[in-house]
Amino acid sequence: MAPIGTVWGDTCQRQTKVILNIAALNGLDLQQAPFEFGVTNKSPEFLSKFPYGKIPLSRTPRDGMSVIGGKSDFLGSNAKETALVDQWTHFAEHELGGPVFGILGLVYGFTGPFIAR
């Protein structure tokens, strides 16, 4: 199947993974552009397409450019598929994202150590 668009984002970033997972749940193929944080998103070519330099984002032939993908491409083709995509998106964001980020923050030094009072 031909890709429906291109996504730019760091594969370690949770939001990029959400975009790719939503596309996979809908049986869609997204092309991942080569991306190096702080280099690709600061290049003149990237900034000419996306002036804010923020990631993740995608560009599809149908909608030109959009943040977090094209509206109709990622939401499912009927109410049941839309509900399933929404369910898994919110599950990943709220049940996995917060706790995992907290743990990784401690491991990689993004947050300070725990101090019992």
What does this structure look like?
44% of the residues lie in helices and 9% in strands. It has a three-stranded mixed beta sheet with strand order 2-1-3, covered by helices on one side. Helix 1 (14-25) packs antiparallel against helix 4. The chain is built from four helices and three strands, in the order βαβαβαα. The protein is mainly alpha-helical.
How much β-strand is present in the residues?
5-15%
Shape: flat
Overall mean confidence score, pLDDT: 77
**Alpha-beta content class:** mainly alpha
Main beta sheet strand tally, sense and closure: 3 strands, mixed
Order of helical and strand elements: EHEHEHH
Distance between the termini: 57 Å
Helical amount: 40-55%
Radius of gyration: 16 Å
What's the count of strands?
Answer: 3
Q: List low-confidence stretches.
A: 64-72
Order of strands across the biggest sheet?
2-1-3
* Number of helices, counting only DSSP H or I runs of 4 residues or more: 4
How is this structure best summarized?
By secondary structure, this protein is mainly alpha-helical.
Which key terms come to mind for this protein?
single chain; 117 residues; mainly alpha; 44% helix; flat
Helices and strands, with pairings:
Elements: E1 5-8, H1 14-25, E2 30-32, H2 44-49, E3 57-59, H3 71-74, H4 79-108
Parallel strand pairs: 1-2
Antiparallel strand pairs: 1-3
